[in-house]
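Response to reviewer comment R2.3. The reviewers asked that we include at least one raw input/output pair. We reproduce the pair for G_PROTEIN_RECEP_F1_2 domain-containing protein here without editing.
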Amino acid sequence: MELECPLKYFNLALEAVGLIINIFHLTILIRKSLRKSGIYIFLKFIAALDILNLLSGLFYNSLSISSTFPFIFMTEFSTISTSFLILLIAIFHCISSVFEKAQMFKTITRFSVITATTSITIILLIFYELFKIWSLSHVPNIMEVEIDPRLQLFLVSGYIFLIAAVKVFGRKPHRKFILIVLICYLLTTLPPFIWHIVKINFQEDIETAFLLKAKYILRTIGKINSSTIFFICLCTLPEYQKVVQDVFPKKFTLPLFKNFTSSNFSSSG
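Raw output as returned:
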């Protein structure tokens, strides 16, 4: 039980910092030069969902609310949605790399196609969450909801498959970014999935205090991705680096940007 308070406050700090980072991240992504570029359309949706995730976590952890039910489902919805959008980024990247010289490349990289695909995915996940809410409506005082382990298995399998696919078919300048993000999401999806298996098989032997510690630790792991995509973009995406460099005055420009020349910032679409 002694671990509960430190981890709770650590989560609050992580969520508050992550919220500031993601708001700044979103202001970069809506800049004109990135507004209609393929991968950045996905990243705008992901940043908005991460903000929702972090806000719901802040309310859940910091306010004395009699019913935490809405915040639980907002957190789960945003977590699942960002996971699926990461898979979509990798799928679109592989398809566009394979068919780079074909008409199909122009079709799947259109702003309208990517926006429609992302919107449909999110709408379907909203219906999934609404169905889950309806199925649990008879359960009193819900305090915690776990992501379906079958869905976790699907996501873990998808990350592993797409890491291999991007490794084989991926092209610069987005290949490194997608690989790092897929690996990060795989590493943060595995612990809850493994924990669920352990809990099913050894539930009678696990103490309540340990369950509580595990809950806070897993929640902390789940928040990490919401705060790291900005830094991965900053280190691996030349177009993103150029926009950040333009936003900051030159005297505050990070040393990271000094080695970049205009040839680094060619758009990939």
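Residues 4 and 151 are 28 Å apart (CA to CA). Residues 4-265 form a domain with the Rhopdopsin 7-helix transmembrane proteins fold (CATH 1.20.1070.10). Further pairs are available on request from the corresponding author.
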